[in-house]
Design goal:
The structure is a single chain. This protein has about 60 residues and is mainly beta. It has strands at about 25, 30-35, 40, 45, 50, 55-60. The strands form three sheets. It has a two-stranded antiparallel sheet. The protein has a two-stranded antiparallel sheet with strand order 2-3. The protein is globular. The two termini are about 15 Å apart.
Length: about 60
């Protein structure tokens, strides 16, 4: 089980766990700037569905 911290105000959600993606699209998808203005390349995109213990599902 992985622990997630969700921020509803976030522009991007990131994870190093590629195995969680069901339809991962690898490629050059731009950059995301962190709080210290450091630019990180976006290496892949997908929609990830988180299933909570009480049964609800949240898509990121």
């Amino acid at each position: 089980m992985h622990t997630w911290i969700l921020d509803s105000g976030a522009s991007f959600h990131v994870t190093p766990h590629r195995e969680l993606f069901s339809d991962y699209t690898e490629g050059r998808h731009g950059v995301v700037h962190l709080g210290d203005n450091y630019a990180c390349d976006i290496a892949g995109i997908d929609t990830l569905q988180l299933k909570f213990q009480h049964g609800s599902v949240f898509a990121l």
